[in-house]
């Protein structure tokens, strides 16, 4: 198992994400799903894992966001980014992106690998869902040949529900962060929609971000 | 003793104020649970614009109830226009930045990163002179239309804001974010209706005489605009509802987790 970087989430998932797995974090924009990627990267760097961060933003924007969550990405991270990374991301060039990721993983394949990406929603906006389904299906199966765990974020409310459902099929685990309305209150709730090696989890959990950590508590009405 | 028209105006102002308060409540409640700075700022200013209309409704109701006129009322009315346009600009700015973040190609629509400073500064200057001219003309003529502000300057401020609205629409189109589009649809509808109510309050709309129908139509549209603002606040993010079955399942599983 691979630590998520969040103690309470590790407990919830029985020690972390499964080895050689692909995890999807689904949630509306602004809810903080990227923070799961930041803590996942931070935990990997502290253990000496190879960390690859593939983002549609500039590295400086990510670093600013990381600080806002009280996390740190200290250490030799490989960045594929719009600006400021070792490799420039061109989300219009799917074959090029796939090749660069696979080559990078091949070179660093002797260590445990963590890949975090936020480009999925952008790819779905620029291409047909069928194209992205095929692209992702191939990429995920090839990267799983290495000792890699991939964590991808996907925006809820930006795509049609059937597109989201199709994407979820490709992943071994799906974490859902959503806002639920109850009377005059809004609850941020987390749900494990599926996770390889775990029985279905119908429970909801409250979550909140405090400085330097994410707090998860059982949700009771 | 208040006339029928004044009584209707006061009642509808209070209803509209209540609707805008509800919009502000939802926008600020959603802001509390969001984490990303850009989205929190957008929710804050949706709440800010709604709060502004609460204050404006209270001001209009009070002005009618106390039959308030004179220098300070005109000054306050001009200040309200300045605050309203400033709040609208900040909301436009925050929403354009959100739209840019969700644009897969991160395009800087109409060079918004520079244009925002031009719009911000020029509308601030326009508002300053609007207040100044309003005070000067109100003191010299005592005419009540100055409550609307100095017309040429209002046209100028409106044009500046329109430029922001164009940037916003182009950004939203580029972003492809369905939630943002839903939010903009409701906000745009509300803003459009407010513009229509503004036109109904202008001198040319009163050529038919002081019929009670005009304030009723005006305030009905104002109430519909307030409802649109409420819908725009609720559509800032997708909000789910848990069914009774979901709660039952959750309570079966939840106690198994301990937190440290």
What does this structure look like?
The complex is a heterodimer of chains A (221) and B (260). Chain A has 221 residues and is an alpha/beta fold. Chain A has helices spanning 7-12, 33-47, 59-68, 94-107, 120-126, 129-143, 161-169; strands at 22-27, 50-54, 77-81, 87-88, 113-117, 148-155, 173-182, 185-195, 204-210, 213-218. Chain A has a domain at 21-167: Rossmann fold (3-Layer(aba) Sandwich). Chain A has a 10-stranded mixed β-sheet with strand order 4-3-2-5-6-1-7-8-9-10, covered by helices on one side. In chain A, helix 4 (94-107) runs parallel beside helix 6. The model of chain A has no long low-confidence stretch (mean pLDDT 90). Chain B has a single domain, classed as Rhopdopsin 7-helix transmembrane proteins (Up-down Bundle). Helix content of chain B is 77%, strand content 1%. Chain B is built from 8 helices and 1 strand; from the N terminus they run αααααααβα. The longest helix of chain B is centred in the first third of the chain and has 32 residues, at 71-102. Chain B is globular. Chains A and B meet through helix 1, helix 5, strand 7, strand 8 and strand 9 of A and helix 1, helix 2, helix 3, strand 1 and helix 8 of B.
């Amino acid at each position: 198992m691979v630590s998520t970087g969040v103690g309470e989430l590790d407990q919830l998932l029985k020690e972390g994400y499964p080895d050689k797995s692909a995890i999807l974090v689904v949630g509306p924009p602004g809810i903080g799903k990227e923070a799961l990627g930041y803590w996942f990267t931070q935990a990997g760097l502290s253990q000496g894992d190879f960390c690859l961060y593939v983002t549609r933003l500039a590295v400086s924007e990510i670093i600013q966001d990381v600080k806002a969550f009280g996390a740190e990405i200290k250490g030799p991270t490989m960045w594929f980014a719009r600006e400021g990374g070792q490799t420039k991301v061109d989300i219009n060039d799917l074959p090029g992106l796939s090749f660069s990721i696979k080559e990078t993983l091949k070179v660093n394949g002797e260590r445990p690998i963590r890949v975090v990406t936020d480009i999925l929603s952008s790819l779905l906006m620029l291409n047909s869902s069928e194209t992205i389904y095929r692209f992702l299906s191939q990429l995920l199966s090839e990267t799983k040949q290495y000792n890699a765990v991939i964590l991808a974020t996907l925006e809820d409310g930006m795509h049609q529900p059937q597109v989201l459902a199709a994407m979820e099929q490709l992943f071994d685990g799906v974490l859902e962060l959503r806002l639920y309305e109850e009377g005059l209150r809004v609850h941020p709730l987390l749900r494990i929609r599926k996770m390889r090696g775990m029985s279905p989890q119908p429970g909801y959990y409250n979550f909140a971000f405090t400085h330097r950590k994410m707090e998860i508590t059982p949700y009771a009405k | 003793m208040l006339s029928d028209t004044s009584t209707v105006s006061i009642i509808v102002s209070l209803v509209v104020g209540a609707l805008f308060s509800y919009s502000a409540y939802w926008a600020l409640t959603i802001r509390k649970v969001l984490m990303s700075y850009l989205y929190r700022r957008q929710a804050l200013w949706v709440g800010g614009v709604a709060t502004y209309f609460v204050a404006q409704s209270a001001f209009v109701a009070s002005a009618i109830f106390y039959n308030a006129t004179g220098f300070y009322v005109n000054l306050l009315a001009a200040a309200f226009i300045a605050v309203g346009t400033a709040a609208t600009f900040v909301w436009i700015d925050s929403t354009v930045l959100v739209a840019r973040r969700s644009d897969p190609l991160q395009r800087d629509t109409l060079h918004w990163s520079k244009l925002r400073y031009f719009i911000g500064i020029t509308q601030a200057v326009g508002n300053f002179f609007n207040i100044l001219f309003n005070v000067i003309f109100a003191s010299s003529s005592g005419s009540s239309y100055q409550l609307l502000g100095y017309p040429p300057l209002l046209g100028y401020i409106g044009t500046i804001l329109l430029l922001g609205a164009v940037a916003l629409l182009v950004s939203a189109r580029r972003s492809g974010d369905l939630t943002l589009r839903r939010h903009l649809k409701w906000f745009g509808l509300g803003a459009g209706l407010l513009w229509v109510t503004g036109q109904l309050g202008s001198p040319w709309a009163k050529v038919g005489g002081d019929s009670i129908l005009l304030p009723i139509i005006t305030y009905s549209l104002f109430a519909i605009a307030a409802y649109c603002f409420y819908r725009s606040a609720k559509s800032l993010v997708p909000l789910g509802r848990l069914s009774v079955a979901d709660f039952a399942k959750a309570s079966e599983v939840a106690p198994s987790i301990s937190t440290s």
